[in-house]
Amino acid sequence: MAAGTFEFGEFELNCERYELRRKGIPLRLERQPMELLILLASSDGHLVTRDEIAQLLWPSEVFVDTGHGINTAIRKIRHALREDPESPRFLQTITGKGYRFIGVTPKPEPIPLPGETAQPEPLIPQPVVPTHAPAWLHRLWVWVSVSAVILILIRIATFGARSVRGHTKPQPITSIAVLPLANLSGDPNEEYFADGMTDELTTMLAKDSTLRIVSRTSAMQFKDAHRSLPEIARALDVDAILEGSISRSSGKVHMTLQLVSGETDNHLWAESYDRDTNDVAVLPDNAARAIAVRLNSSTPPHANANYINPEAHEAYLRGHYSWVVGRNEDAGRYYRQAVQIQPDYALGWTGLADYYAMKAISGEVEPLQALQQAEAAARKAVELDDSVARAHTALGGMIFFNHGDDVQALNELTRATELDSHDGEAFHLHARILCALGRYDEAIAVQKQSTAINPFEHPGAMAEIYACTRQFDAAISDGEMRLKDFPAAPDILLFLADSYHWKGRDKEAVEMLARQISAEGDVPQSAAVRRAFETGGYPAVVRCQLAAVEKRARTGRVSTFALADLHGKLGEHDETLALLQQGVNERDPRLLLLTQSDPAFDFLHADLRYRSLIQKIGLPPMYLDSN
Hints:
CATH class of the domain at 175-294: Alpha Beta
Mean pLDDT: 83
Helix content: 40-55%
Strand content: 5-15%
Radius of gyration: 30 Å
Largest sheet: 6 strands, mixed
Number of helices: 25
Low-confidence stretches: 116-132, 148-168
Structural class: alpha+beta
CATH architecture of the domain at 175-294: 3-Layer(aba) Sandwich
CATH superfamily of the domain at 175-294: ABC-type transport auxiliary lipoprotein component
Distance between the termini: 81 Å
Number of strands: 14
């Protein structure tokens, strides 16, 4: 094939520039699909076999499931060309053989104008081509050789006289992001299954390898993102990306995975798995172990996992999906099904602990009972399987909220991070408890670890910790920086609003507060807050919020912390103290964490009743000397 440009339909393919355009607009196509497209477009309408494609795209020393790799590349080409495989315009599949590209016209080279002379053809050494290759493949090898020489000349001109030392040794893979598995079941209701298996694969990679595994929440931001894998790898700061798909039908599950270098976009490993639905629970562990072995990063084999009933596993996946997307009641129903089907299923009990904890933290039920239920479920999970990191995280929180035993609570959270050093949630809860204990420097350091692991889960967490330690300038600086990436994150907006207020910048505080309320979906209340500030300043804004909370309280339960915080901002001494006492009696988790950390309560610190309350909670006193 001669290097040049091809036209087909509204598309133009420039082989020299590695560029595909549609109606003059460049389209994004990754390296291997682009190389395959060039190969197909330059084949003069001849059949290109799958073996020929594999020989061109993958070096023989790399272990790859080439069948899956070719299918993936073809799928990406068809997506770029907006092509329906059932009625193709350009790319025909020859079943069992390969592919043929049709409708291609070479674009003629420009004719030199009068007075111009054509450049002489450079002397290019003839490539060594397998004798059995077809004629068009010979031309392709010639073009590849020309391109290689040009690249060498460019490097010499750019970097000076440097010796060419052969192939660069590939950098070792030390970190991976697992992108959400594509649901190929043909049923959108199966999305929970694909997401659940992605989550379990991420967890098992962290357990089975010494690799740094990006958190599920961070990787989930790139679900259905039309960005190249190297771009995603750079955004997540990883060496490699694991992508794939999963489908199930008629009692069978098919999963395909491929590991791709984030630097070169080369395939490093690929495999496909076929299992009965009865065996699907162990599939993530099987795949994770294979990847760890391939990258020479496997940990010692762990004890054989207990048998998991397929129906219990199905209920757990549904529950976990519901919990992640915020449908907590649905999550609780599925988690209860899981442990009813299989009472010794540790992950089911872990899910139940999270469900009850969320009910208590949200303030929708009396916290005391929900926290006790959460602790019982977490203890059951740890008893059944001590290796489940999330169970230790839940248990650590419940020990602190129910018993005030900060030593044992922090021990459980430390155990959780030892089991899974990539779970930012355990670090986040650890930092919150350290802050409640007044160990501010440690709290900031631990929250930095959590944010580095997973900047997406709690983007406002650093601003919160800084605000709790009264470092309002640092809170504002961090919040403003993260707001550029998360302009509608309610927690960033909320902690920025509070920090601006405590710095005396009420106009900015109200703007952040209004944006936060709007981001949570209450546009009328957001407008009401702005009007209140125009007519009565910041105190009117707080009263506007208080009226909205009290209105909700007439038809349901609201968080005691929310009421106490608002009365505190108004400086209402007796009302605030009464609510603090009520919250402590209820074991309201947010009040236990923030009774001394929330600046809204600082004006109470000299009151003996407040100090008696702190003593009752069992927290070390951190009283301010003045109001």
